[in-house]
Amino acid sequence: MLEARAISFRFGASGRTVLDDASIAIAPGEIVGLSGPSGIGKSTLGRILAQHVRPDSGRVVIDGRPVAAGGFHPVQFLAQSPILAVNPRWRVGRILAEASPPDEETRAALGIRPDWDQRYPHELSGGELQRVAIARALAPGLRYLVADEISAMLDAVTQVRIWTFLRRLAAERSIGILAVSHDAALLARICDRREAMGSGRPVPCAAEPLRARAAS
Q1: What's CA 186's distance to the chain center, in Å?
Q2: What whole-number distance in Å separates Cα of residue 48 and Cα of residue 199?
Q3: Based on CB atoms within 10 Å of each CB, which residue in 66, 73, 132, 192 is the most buried?
Q4: What is the CATH number of the domain that holds 79?
Q5: Contact assessment for residue 107 and residue 135, using Cβ atoms and an 8 Å cutoff
Q6: C-alpha span between 46 and 72 (Å, rounded)
Q7: How far apart are CA 162 and CA 129, in angstroms?
Q8: Alpha-carbon distance 202 to 193, whole Å?
Q9: Contact in structure between 2 and 76 (CB atoms under 8 Å)
């Protein structure tokens, strides 16, 4: 279980408080949706879960224990714009191998072609590079993904391909996913449950599993 416990965060010593006693939990294999207006703290909470940002107070734990520093982090953050998450001077093959080269099954499922390995990030489309970023995050040791608007700028076919793969991955490898999105219809289709940011903290949106409700 990945948990953020009583997280508070503000921008700068006298800045606006974004998170106020915020808590959220994601179980292994569970997909949790997180929605809310822009600027309300969704991405900040996701970055704190992945330890990209340090909270002012509170803590992040996995199975009740702090995450050990060093090595591959078990919580990976996937941003909306993958071009900002890769080294522009590296070829795609090197980016993919940064933590551990993805197996052929993963490459095939995400549609990553062998000829991409010799290209630079700017030579791929946004959807293609997002699939590369996802594959890079799936190294051994991954337990949780924070997917921050990862399909918002993509065409419908690429969205379906990515989320079909991630839902299967969650089930097969028991990887928990926090899906951050403004798209309520998307969250209804892919998530087991959904929370919304309000007053500096996530609040449950519904008691029943959204995936089951959407299918009925």
Answers
A1: 15
A2: 18
A3: 132
A4: 3.40.50.300
A5: yes
A6: 17
A7: 12
A8: 12
A9: no
Which residue's entry shows tokens 């106020």? Answer: 20
C-alpha–C-alpha distance, residues 134 and 10, integer Å: 29
> Can you list the residues of the chain whose pLDDT is less than 50?
207-216
Task: Write down the pLDDT at residue 13.
Answer: 67
What pLDDT score does 30 carry? 97
Please report whether residue 20 resides in a domain. no
This prediction's pTM:
0.89
Q: Report the pLDDT value the prediction gives residue 14, as an integer from 0 to 100.
A: 65
Nearest to 110 by CA among 138, 88, 90: 138
- Over residues 116-160, the pLDDT tens digits come to 999 999 999 988 999 999 999 998 899 999 999 998 878 888 888
pLDDT of residue 158: 84
List the structure tokens of 151: 């399909």
Q: What is the pLDDT of residue 210?
A: 45
**Contact predicate 31/190, CB 8 Å:** yes
Q: Report if residue 143 sits inside a domain.
A: yes
Q: Which of 56, 131, 51, 138 is nearest to 97 (CA)?
A: 138
Number of domains within the chain: 1
Q: Is 118 a member of any domain?
A: yes
Phi, psi of 68 (to 5 degrees): -65, 145
